């Protein structure tokens, strides 16, 4: 139980750093080109950044705990705390940008997403009626509302919790005296 406190204290700063980096990426994409929010490579870049941070958090926490064992629970906490904090910071920044600073940017991204969806569906040869219906759904939904951003945060947490479980399996270390 006392390991849990030190695990949290070591892992928490990584969440703050991750949140700052994800927020900077969002701010830079907002500042330079809103089309980046519809690009697959921004998502892949964010994914890689998050994985790197979680692995570093696991390694640093495992060293800092300095016990012969690094139980599964501690290994899970070492990667889940940073992602929970980092995504929360990033979500708050997105909410501020797209709901208070520049709500028109949210509408622009929605329109760009609809255009991208249309182009992709046309390449797949879907009937025009289906394309129009799908584009209308994209235009009517606003992923930048407070409620939708909070839902997105919860879904992302669930996804990253599964990744954290995998990382915990990799980084856990059994007590050599119990083996």
From TrEMBL:
Domain of life per record: Bacteria
InterPro entries reported for this sequence: DUF4199 (IPR025250)
Coiled coil: none
Bilayer-spanning residue ranges: 12-32, 38-56, 76-101, 153-171
Pfam families found in the cross-reference section: DUF4199
Annotated signal sequence range: none
Keywords of the record: Membrane, Transmembrane, Transmembrane helix
Name of the protein in its database record: Membrane protein
């Amino acid at each position: 139980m006392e390991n849990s406190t030190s695990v949290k204290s070591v892992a928490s700063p990584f969440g703050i750093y991750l949140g700052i980096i994800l927020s900077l990426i969002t701010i830079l994409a907002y500042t330079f080109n809103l089309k980046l929010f519809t690009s697959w490579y921004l998502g892949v870049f964010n994914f890689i950044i998050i994985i790197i941070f979680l692995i570093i958090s696991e390694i640093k926490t495992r060293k800092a705990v300095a016990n012969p064992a690094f139980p599964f629970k501690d290994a899970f906490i070492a990667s889940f705390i940073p992602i929970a904090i980092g995504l929360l910071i990033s979500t708050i920044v997105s909410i501020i940008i797209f709901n208070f600073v520049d709500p028109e940017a949210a509408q622009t991204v929605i329109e760009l997403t609809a255009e991208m969806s249309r182009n992709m569906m046309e390449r797949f040869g879907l009937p025009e009626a289906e394309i129009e219906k799908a584009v209308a759904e994209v235009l009517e939904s606003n992923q930048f509302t407070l409620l939708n951003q909070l839902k997105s945060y919860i879904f992302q947490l669930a996804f990253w919790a599964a990744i954290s479980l995998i990382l915990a399996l990799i980084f856990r270390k059994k007590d050599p005296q119990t083996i």
